[in-house]
Deoxyribose-phosphate aldolase
Amino acid sequence: MSARNPGMHLDLEWVSKVKVNTQAVLKRAQQIQGRKVAKKQWQAAWQLKAVTCIDLTTLAGDDTPSNVHRLCMKATQPVRHDLLKSMDMHDKGITTAAVCVYPSRVADAVKSLKAANSSLPVASVATGFPAGQTPLKTRLAEVQMAVEDGATEIDIVINRTLALTGQWTALYDEIRQFREACGDAHMKTILAVGELGTFTNVYKASLVSMMAGSDFIKTSTGKESVNATYPIAIVMVRAIRDYYLKTGHKVGFKPAGGIRTAQESVVWLTLMKEELGDEWLNPHLFRLGASSLLADIERQIYHYVTGRYPAYHELPMA
């Protein structure tokens, strides 16, 4: 991960002046989606780049040590070795960026990765994920426990009630406390944009989260009805850009929820390149939160290498 974002004092004047031009945002999002996509080896290269930015995730009620272990093994070898070899990429250390699990599964993931001799980071969701509606004391304890179990990245969820009612000082104070509880672990702040109502609210919540010391801002838990959309991403990355221009601190961006195809992953990379520049095109500042995306990317790479799509049994489960 990149240098930490130390945060800053809560600048309510800056927050209160925010107004987002909805039409301009929608138009820009359409432009980015309408870009011609790269073909052949260039497309395969972008897709491999996307793999290295994935937080490979399992957040299900039926998670067990064995499927967490399988997730970790897939994260360390995300694309079949023979496919990488035929692209001359087998010795480039391609892994996903991290694995992401519930707090109670962190120890399992850490154990699996250690046994595989991998230094891949383990990220944990916390703070009453996905609704964030548990008492503050419990949410803080959850962060501390995940860190104690070996998580080096924590994906916290904000209290949407505070954002919806404009209690920005209270929201800032909560996130500051989460940041403190994270210690050396990097903090990604989930805004749950589908529950924030307006683009202006999304921008304000992004700003307050960064002021409070978030290292990343993340769109969604993946459990809301609206998750990562391009217009919402434009609003969030513009907030990241404004924060960087004002403070000199770079904050990362993580879209999550509903990102399933290799083609979409390339659009996300294009958005980052155009809006924030090449510096943001790496796992230190860009992550894709996904569980089924990797399977499609591997399918497309298989097609690029062999000229045909794989039968169901030819690729291991993602």
Summary: The chain has one domain: 12-314.
